[in-house]
Amino acid sequence: MKKNALLAYLGFLILMIALGASDAMRGVFVPIFGEHFALSNTQRSLIITVSYVGNLVFLLFGGRLADTKRRKLAFFGAAALWMGAVLSYIFSDSYMALLVGMFFSMGASTLTSTLINVLTGQIFIGMSAMVVNTLFFIQGIGTTGSQRLAGMFADGFSSWHWANLIVLILGLIGAAVLFFVRFPQPGSDGVAPLEKFGFRKVLQNRAFYFLVLILGFYFVAEHSVMNWLVTTGTEEFGLSIDSASGYLSLFFGGIMVGRLAFAPLVQKLGVKRSILLFGLVGTVLFGIGSLLQENGLIVLALSGLFFSILYPTMVMMVQLYYPANGVATAAGMIISVATLFDIGWNALYGVLMDTIGMRTAYLLPAAAMALCFLSCVGLLGLKTLWKGKE
């Protein structure tokens, strides 16, 4: 691996740990936010909803910026906004400040990780599927580790301040390493003039609509676990925060281990076959675990092993349908529109918990995962499973 690629990998690695921790801790701290600020379920769900509104705004415009301007400038701009929001968590102590911070931290962190995904395919040519899944494995260390540690040691709002201080330090170290990396510039592949590839061309591709459905339903399923499993476990299933966060960290621990263990298999099978195979098994296990409720928590947690390669490989799939000089634009637009599913679902979930009850609401993410898999079948076709690598 060349020096530039090695530096990029090291910087991405450190930053992915911090990004994973930053995104994941929110779900563990939701009960603490509710107690500290005396929030209703609807107010707690607003914390999650606002964060996904940030995703939509940042990805919609940030992806286009990365394809039309200097990628390094766009990348560091997103990372700086994310770290600024994390800094605000350390010093603020109000519900409104928390909401504003969620908008910027989640939006900017998702844009940063998406740009890492896109850049990986252009820096590590010939081995991008393996590298992107190992990087997301590293992100899983940040996700799982932060969830477990937060579950064990979070005993009040001050724990939120200290956790974000650690995240900020890691982010600054990763950014310092990446400052010395040469980023590939948009349009260098000669596919088409940049000014001729915009939002209209993204929409003209039939794959756009399937990719939005695939990612949108996937977001509802995975993020429901991240954001609401601890709340449901403690308030409906009678678990302690430590025990509930244990199942949460096991789910994301499976995602973490799977991204490392299955990366060579994804490289061998190809993007499309991997998504169908892992999507099928993950959907079945997730559905069984959800139906069994508290008795199926271990099954639901183990489904994370098969969720592992889905998101990074789905984002890589965008590169199969769009030219290299428009991938960031397409990926940003697809993920931002798919984020509408997150926004609508999390705005609704608090209301559903109050009306139909936590146990019934708990079943709905499994239905979303089934719709995700069916959307994959609609785009790729089941025949892809026994066709050659693609």
Specify the number of helices: 16
Q: Quick one: how many beta strands? A: 0
Mean pLDDT: 83
Task: Give the low-confidence spans.
Answer: 189-195
**Percent range for β-strand residues:** under 5%
Please state the structural category.
mainly alpha
Distance linking N and C termini: 25 Å
Biggest beta sheet summary: none
Element order, helices and strands?
Answer: HHHHHHHHHHHHHHHH
Helicity, as a percent range:
over 70%
What features would you describe in this structure?
With 390 residues, the protein is an all-alpha fold. It is 82% helix and 0% strand. Helix 1 runs antiparallel to helix 4 (95-123) and helix 8 packs antiparallel against helix 16. The two termini are 25 Å apart.
Short descriptors:
390 residues; mainly alpha
Briefly summarize what is shown.
By secondary structure, the chain is mainly α. The chain has helices spanning 3-37, 41-68, 71-91, 95-123, 128-153, 157-178, 199-204, 207-235, 241-261, 263-269, 271-291, 297-302, 304-307, 310-321, 327-355, 358-380. α3 (71-91) packs antiparallel against α6 (157-178), α4 packs antiparallel against α15 (327-355) and α8 packs antiparallel against α9 (241-261).
